[in-house]
């Protein structure tokens, strides 16, 4: 019988849950902050998320509500609280229930609900992403605006302040893997 790839075989182990309640940050890049300011569009948060300054950047701070590392080598998924929004002169584009799916190569897709449908807002490369059996982290992870994201902003404001394909946010996060399965692997004698 020929060998079977882990992806084809399915996982023998259950997914490893991520610790809910940990914060994450979507921080505007310098270029996107300037483009938003030029267009007179401001970043806002959908409760319970907040807009904060983190590492000298304007950011939306959210909280992980659930997530997991798939032990069948298909990547990682996560979901956050609230969402983020952009507003100008009484017009507002809201993006709620943010979700991430990172593939095994650590490239990612970031989606959110907008006007009743889920759209892909951002994509990311593996730059800044780290994964281990005990922690998932990202520091200054470039999140490029997708065509769907640019179209959603243009639908509200007439044009997108940043073209698709341009880094819009930098993601910053550190999530612990819950110690359900890893404790036997990491216990010191």
Q: How is this structure best described in words?
A:
This protein has 189 residues and is an alpha+beta fold. The chain contains 4 helices and 13 strands. It has helices at 6-9, 30-38, 147-157, 179-186; strands at residues 16-17, 23-28, 42-46, 50-54, 57-70, 75-80, 83-88, 91-102, 108-114, 117-124, 129-131, 135-145, 167-176. It has an 8-stranded antiparallel β-barrel. The longest helix is centred in the last third of the chain and has 11 residues, at 147-157. The chain is elongated and about 50 Å long. It starts with 5 loop residues before the first helix and ends with a helix. 34% of the residues are buried.
Total number of helical segments?
Answer: 4
Q: What would you report as the Rg, rounded to the nearest angstrom?
A: 18 Å
Low-pLDDT segments: 1-9, 181-189
- Secondary-structure-based class equals alpha+beta
Task: Output the keywords.
alpha+beta; 17% helix; 13 strands; 189 residues
